[in-house]
Amino acid sequence: MEAFDACYGRVMSKFVLLLGGSVHVTDRLLKQVAGARVLAADGGIAHAAPLGLTPELWLGDFDSTSPELEKEYAHVPRQVFPAAKDMTDGELALNEAYRLGATELVLCGAFGGVRTDHTLLHLTMATAHAAQGHKIILTSGSEEAHPLVGGEYAFDFVDKTQFSIVAFSQLHGLFIDGARWPLENVELSFGSSLTVSNAVCGTLHVSLHSGKAILIAAPPVA
């Protein structure tokens, strides 16, 4: 999907990356992926059909792709990599999306599955890219995550949506408004649970002077 950003004078291009975690199809998720260009990382291509998506490229070492998926998506162009490589299939897909001009990314299937290490990588990798100015969200449909770096954020979650903010560094000047437990100009240490298990009350706004964190929310499923 491409649109023009008048503020920056550039064409906006949204990409969806299909990863190997869990996906629960919801109306919210379908809206988030609608009209986007799609790349699949290895076994993540299994999410294409349930989401009504057609990948333009399939990347990875294909160690988690079943024979059935191989046959079903034999028509999709591939980039095949050796199993002994320096990046995960997800990071390869992310880098390829940027090479193709992505300005906004939705990492679909970023949570769950059998690889906790991959989930943690997706969260930290997304936050690192957000710190470089990239727009990126992660989702399984039942959960979604938004990297927080210095700046102001507004979210479209409905009332009572549960959310947590997990710090990846010391946080300076953290404000939370539109929540059951608001905060004003808080210093939050790495490893603190202060910002875990909150709930939206109105329109959620978060601002952060400096630091890196991620907001994880569980939007209600109709």
TrEMBL record:
Its EC number is 2.7.6.2. CDD domains: TPK (cd07995). It is an enzyme of class 2 (transferase). SMART domains: TPK_B1_binding (SM00983). SUPFAM superfamilies: Thiamin pyrophosphokinase, catalytic domain, Thiamin pyrophosphokinase, substrate-binding domain. PANTHER family: THIAMINE PYROPHOSPHOKINASE (PTHR41299). This is Thiamine diphosphokinase. It comes from Phyllobacterium ifriqiyense. The lineage of its organism: Bacteria, Pseudomonadati, Pseudomonadota, Alphaproteobacteria, Hyphomicrobiales.
